[in-house]
Amino acid sequence: MTAPLCETRAVVEGLRRLVDKVPRVQLAALPTPLQECPRLSSVLGGPRILMKRDDLTGLALGGNKSRHLEFLMADALSKGADVVVVGAASQSNLCCQVAAAACKLGLESVLLLARDEKAYYQGNVLLDTLLGADVRFVDVRDRREVFKLCEKVAVELAHEGRRAYAINPWSFAGSLAAIGYVNFVIELCGQLSQMDVTADYLFTAATDATPAGLLVGLKAIGSKLKVVGISPGLSQHESRVLVAAIANDAAKLLGLDTHVSPAEITNHDAYVGTGYGKTTPECLEAIKLVAETEGIILDPVYTGKAMAGVVDHIRNGRIGPGETVVFLHTGGVPLVFVYGEELECVK
Ligand SMILES: *Cc1c(COP(=O)(O)O)cnc(C)c1O
What we know:
With about 350 residues, the protein is of the alpha/beta class. About 45% of the residues lie in helices and about 15% in strands. Strands 1-2-10-7-8-9 form a six-stranded mixed β-sheet, with helices on both faces. Strands 5-4-3-6 form a four-stranded parallel β-sheet, with helices on both faces. Helix 5 links the parallel strand 4 and strand 5. Pyridoxal-5'-phosphate (PLP) binds next to helix 4 and helix 8.
């Protein structure tokens, strides 16, 4: 027997009041749809699968970063920023979403993109350019090194009289981003109770702020829904430490006394393959399967690996045919256009 997602409506409303106290700007078209995937479910042999379409947040081509940025950009605005600086891998979904959010809010953006194998004008880099971001390729790959460069650029911009806001994913920004997924829990809860569905698992591609927010939100309302994170690159140990730290900062920020410890976090690293940004045959198979059964496009870096995790859990019986899975589609769709060669080998 599974427990309901939400113990009481009043508890959820209590959480909503806490989230509503945190400054926020509207960037995403919410709620995102929660859709049944009956053909996918039947091909996989049973479990009910619902997909929460955060690829449809309506900011550029969508994704989980839209929700993060509702809180992050509010912080940037409150600090009087006129330009936002962020950096990551060349095809970063975060950077593209920052560029789009900056447009919507009348700010400028500077993107420091690593000059890696995918650093060409397709996918997110093409969108970054369309969005008018100041795209600068840098010969640094380590994310922490990229962030140091962002801070340096922010200082340079300040010398030019600009008010620059550098996004540091490991500090306060991480916990602000996580609030976006505490808010998601409230939204999902409403949709599930409206559809009269009790879900057992919430699968998601997960590195840091997204699972942190989910865990805090679900814990705060006493839900038994089990978050199963699938890592796109980090080891389970690395992500556990990261997620717990962000979750506890986010809880503090909301004034909650919920505590998340690393040991209670599931963030499988069995679907990583040879590393972040490297596809696996199972990932490619999952992308094809979802495309051909449901007409939904997953991405080769995050959601394809996460769905490979769902498929594997069903095939090896860890999820039973009578159970219900919510799959969080976190976006990343522009990435299919830079993985054409890899995707072509799925026949
Ligand atoms: C960034 C990203 C994730 C991971 O989100 P975190 O908040 O870092 O856990 C998952 N999926 C997609 C498509 C992303 O762009």
